[in-house]
From TrEMBL:
Keywords, ordered alphabetically: Cytoplasm, tRNA processing
One matching Pfam family: DsrH
GO biological process: tRNA wobble position uridine thiolation
Leader sequence residues: none
Name recorded for this polypeptide: Protein TusB
Function: Part of a sulfur-relay system required for 2-thiolation of 5-methylaminomethyl-2-thiouridine (mnm(5)s(2)U) at tRNA wobble positions.
Superkingdom of origin organism: Bacteria
Main subcellular location of this protein, as a coarse class: cytoplasm
Family assignment from sequence similarity: Belongs to the DsrH/TusB family.
Listed GO CC annotations: sulfurtransferase complex
InterPro entries: DsrEFH-like, Sulphur_relay_TusB, Sulphur_relay_TusB/DsrH
Annotated organism of origin: Izhakiella capsodis
Positions of transmembrane segments: none
Localization, UniProt: Cytoplasm
Length: 95
């Protein structure tokens, strides 16, 4: 399943997101959701132990000046990879 996190982890039901994640799922952080890719946050620490593969959309990281600050455990992707993730995961959940 592909989960897309577009809201800040501080402005959504992040605990519900964590409960829904299953090992092997993909999580794409975009818009304000890229804040969850910062390694100093509790959100990232929870995501890191969830067993999901983490992605962040480059344009949103760049727009927020966060490219150099995110964890190296997060794959930075472009729109082409975003589309590939949606094709790979027919089931999706937006947060």
């Amino acid at each position: 399943m592909l989960h897309t996190l577009r809201h800040s982890p501080f402005q959504c039901d992040f605990s519900a997101l964590l409960r829904m994640l299953m090992p092997g799922d993909d999580l794409l952080m975009l818009q304000d959701g890229v804040i969850a890719a910062l390694p100093s946050t509790m959100a990232f620490q929870a995501l890191q132990t969830s067993g999901v593969t983490l992605f962040a959309l480059r344009v949103d990281l760049e727009a927020r000046g966060l490219v150099a600050q995110i964890s190296n455990k997060v794959s930075v992707v472009d729109y082409n990879k975003f589309v590939a993730l949606t094709v790979k995961n027919p089931h999706q959940m937006a947060w």
